[in-house]
Amino acid sequence: MQQSHVLNGFELAAFIAREGAEWQHGAMREPLEPGPPLDLKGIALYCLIDADNFFASSATEPEIRHLLMQLIESCQRRFGGFERVHLRLYGGWMAAGALTQRASQVAQLVSAAFPLPMALPDRTVLRGDWELAHSLLSNPSIRFEDTWRRRASVPRLRLAKSPQPDGCVSGGPQCPAAILRHITRAGSKTCPVVGCGVRSDEMFLTAEQKQVDTMMTADLLDIARLEQNRVVCVSDDTDFVPGLVAASHASSRVGYCNLDHSYDQDTRSTLATLQIQQVSLPKARQ
C-alpha cells in the first residue's frame, strides 16, 4: 500500500502557489484532488545579506529573529518551497587577519537568535545554516582577511561653491568650511591655528569596508548559475543592481530585498522587466 504524504509548511505554500487555489472562510471553494508530493529535495534558498545595511548596530536578538523570519517567509511566498536555507552575512569582518569586534557581535547575536535547524510553530523544521562570509562560495580556500581597513585622515572635501557657498556670512580663511577644505587636501596639511602643528592624518581616522560588495556580487552570480537554487540579494545599496541584472541572464529565480525601499521607480521597473523578483518586508524595521 502506498503511504500518504503530509505536506510540511514549505511544501504546502508551494502547493497552493502552484495550483492557484482560492480560499474562502477557511476552506477551498472547489476541492482539489490529492496529487503527488512535491519534491523539494536539493532546492536551496540563498540569502545574501549586507549585514550593516540589514541589522542596526543596536539590534537585539528578538529583532534579528523577527527580521530573518520575515525575510525567509517573504522569500517562500515569492519563490515557492525549498528544502534548505543558507544565510550568508557580508561585512568588514576581518582586519589584518583578525576578527573584528563587530563580527564577533553579529555572530553571537545571530547564533543566539536564529539557531539552525529550528523548530517552527507549525511543527515543521527549518533546516540550513548561516555564516559570516570570509571567502567566495566558488573558492572557499581563499580567505579575504583585510575587509575592514583603517586609514589616517579623511577623504578630501570640496565646497559646493568656491570660494564660499552661497549665504556664507563668515568668508575668508577662518570660515569653518574653508578650514575643512584646507585640512582634508592631504594628510600632511596642518591645523590653521597659529602655533599648532597637528597634521590632518593625526587628527582623523577613517574606517571602511573593502572587497565586501564585490564578494557578495560574485557569489550572487555563482549561485544564479546553479540549477534549482533561489537567491535573494538583501541590501539598500544600488551598487548591486548591475549584479542583479547579470544574474537574471542565468536564472529566473533571482530576487532582491530593500528594507528602506531605496531603489527609485526607474530601477524597480528595470528589474521587474527582467523578472527579478522583489521581496518586500514592509514592517521589518520601525
Give the topology.
Layout: H1 9-19, E1 23-24, E2 27-28, E3 44-50, H2 51-54, H3 61-79, E4 84-90, E5 94-95, E6 98-99, H4 101-113, E7 118-119, E8 125-126, E9 128-132, E10 135-136, E11 139-143, E12 148-152, H5 176-183, H6 200-203, E13 205-209, H7 212-224, E14 230-234, H8 241-248, E15 254-257, H9 265-273, E16 277-278
Parallel strand pairs: 3-4, 3-14, 4-9, 14-15, 15-16
Antiparallel strand pairs: 1-2, 5-6, 7-8, 10-11, 12-13
Helix pairs in contact: 3-4, 7-8
Description:
This protein has 286 residues and is of the alpha/beta class. It has 2 domains: 44-147 and 211-278, Rossmann fold, CATH 3.40.50; 154-203, no CATH class. Helix content is 31%, strand content 21%. It has 9 helices and 16 strands. The chain has helices at residues 9-19, 51-54, 61-79, 101-113, 176-183, 200-203, 212-224, 241-248, 265-273; strands spanning 23-24, 27-28, 44-50, 84-90, 94-95, 98-99, 118-119, 125-126, 128-132, 135-136, 139-143, 148-152, 205-209, 230-234, 254-257, 277-278.
